[in-house]
Specification:
The protein is α+β, with helices and mostly antiparallel strands and 452 residues long. The protein folds into two domains: 109 residues, Nucleic acid-binding proteins (OB fold (Dihydrolipoamide Acetyltransferase, E2P), Beta Barrel), CATH 2.40.50.140; 309 residues, 2-Layer Sandwich (BirA Bifunctional Protein, domain 2). It contains eleven helices and 16 strands. The strands form three sheets. The protein has an eight-stranded mixed sheet with strand order 6-10-11-16-15-14-13-12, sandwiched between helices. Strands 1-2-3-5-4 form a five-stranded mixed beta barrel. Strand 8 and strand 9 form a beta hairpin. It is elongated and about 85 Å long. The relative contact order is 0.10.
Length: 452
């Protein structure tokens, strides 16, 4: 078998013999010629098969009859190809600027079917989202969906490169926990050995902080997290990819915020450089690399701004609701021309017990980061003084005895530290202007979806 050539490599190759493999996207049968659009993981190419002449035994030699029979067999095979059939084609590559698809085409010499597809495809490009999720492996064959996960790869690589270049340590924390990470809410319980119960981790929060006690200094993790949240909104999932970082020896949450805005600027630049043109073509979105620093607005001020815009947040907990987030984002875009904004200075009542509080204001040293009107991150300086931490846990109605393994980190010394957790799918959804995280999640998990 000839060496396989990827579609993206064809334009740089000279005319001549070539072998490509992929799946059938379309077949066009015309009177004098057949066209097949073959797609692989890197792009699509046009395959051509000239129609065969009828065989006339009285005027054809034995060799010509054999050639004609083989050609007719190839023609019949192509006519019977179903969309999605995986195959390998060997033929002659020819550069031709008249060919709209990349300026190259391949004249088919032979065709080998690796796996035939059923003739009736269960979904179409205009199928509803739920139907497409039922047949996600077919939905992902679309060029734009393939691009999503190339963008995701570039985005994550840029984050890792930033962190690794600055001597961060990557960790892989356990997702089975003996006790809840933050509270007893929104937890999946899992039967464990010897009649024990385990919990799927909501976040790597406690283990990120353990790394600070261990003297790791700066760490990051990109891994699954789980929330037993029966929410059906466009931005929630029961299993999602969380991007987390934690750093030691900070002075305030501002150190965390500065690091986060730097990694986002770095990652957006990488995505724009590598995929910007394709994103514009397939998603009609121009990637904007954010300038730093991002705007900062205290929560109390944000609520007043939103109110002045004609919307009063109805929530009783004092936090922004989704419409409030959209309103403050609109204000930031109008005032600063920015897609991002840090909302800071949250009241302890709406923050986790481990968030440090400012000695003067009593507010937490924390922030939420909004991107295009949607929260993508919570970040904070953590409370590292064990006596203060215990009291704050009690205020939240938590029993310190149930947090003993966590509190032990602090009993044996932890430096001042802080970090953030960010939802990968939300960032990609907003970056590409999509309406739901299901569009940018490889296989979505929600309250009513466990398959495929």
């Amino acid at each position: 078998m000839s060496e396989r050539v990827l579609v993206k490599q064809l334009q740089s190759r000279e005319d001549g013999p070539v072998s490509v493999s992929g799946w059938v996207e379309t077949v066009r049968d015309q009177k004098k010629v057949q066209f097949v659009i073959l797609r692989d993981e890197t792009g699509a190419v046009q395959l051509v098969n000239p129609a065969t002449r009828p065989i006339d035994p009285s005027t054809s030699s034995g060799t010509e009859q054999e050639q004609d029979a083989a050609a007719l067999t190839l023609t019949d095979t192509i006519s019977g190809l179903a969309t999605g059939t995986f195959l390998t084609v060997t033929g002659e590559l020819k550069h031709d600027e008249r060919v709209k698809l990349g300026g190259v085409e391949i004249k088919i010499a032979s065709l080998e079917i690796a796996a035939a597809a059923l003739p009736e495809t269960p979904i179409a490009p205009d199928s509803g989202l739920d139907k497409r999720m039922d047949w996600r492996f077919l939905d992902l064959r679309q060029r734009r969906n393939n691009l999503i996960f190339r963008i995701q790869t570039t985005f994550e690589h840029a984050l890792r490169t930033y962190w690794i270049d600055r001597d961060y340590i990557e960790i892989h924390s356990p997702k089975l926990m003996a006790s809840p990470s933050e509270s007893n809410a929104e937890l999946f319980e899992v039967p464990y050995f010897e009649d024990k119960t385990a919990y799927l981790a909501q976040s790597p929060q406690f283990f990120k902080q353990m790394a600070q006690s261990a003297g790791f200094g700066k760490i990051f993790e990109i891994a699954p997290a789980f929330r037993a949240d029966p929410s059906f909104t466009s931005r929630h999932a029961t299993e999602f990819t969380s991007i987390d970082a934690e750093i030691s020896w900070i002075d305030s949450h501002e150190d965390v915020a500065r690091m986060q805005e730097e990694i986002l600027q770095t990652a957006f630049q990488a995505v724009k450089d590598k995929h910007g043109a394709e994103i514009a073509e397939l998603f009609d979105v121009e990637v904007q690399v954010p300038t730093i620093p991002f705007p900062r607005i205290p929560l109390a001020e944000a609520l007043e701004i939103v109110k002045a815009r004609g919307y009063e947040v109805p929530r009783t907990d004092g936090d922004l609701d989704p419409e409030g987030e959209r309103q403050i984002a609109a204000y930031v875009q109008e005032t600063f021309g920015h897609q991002f904004v840090f909302i800071t200075d949250y009241h302890p009542a709406i923050r986790a017990f481990y968030h440090m509080r400012d000695a003067e204001t009593g507010l937490t040293k924390s922030y939420d980061l909004l991107f295009n009107g949607v929260e993508i991150t919570t970040g904070a300086q953590r409370e590292h003084r064990v006596d203060v931490l215990i009291e704050q846990a009690k205020e939240k109605g938590l029993d310190p005895e149930h947090l003993d393994f966590y509190l032990d980190f602090f009993r044996y010394g932890v430096p001042p530290h802080g970090g953030f957790g960010m939802g990968l799918a939300r960032v990609l959804m907003l970056l590409l202007g999509q309406d739901s995280i299901r569009e940018v999640t490889y296989l979505f998990r929600g309250p009513t979806r466990l398959a495929p």
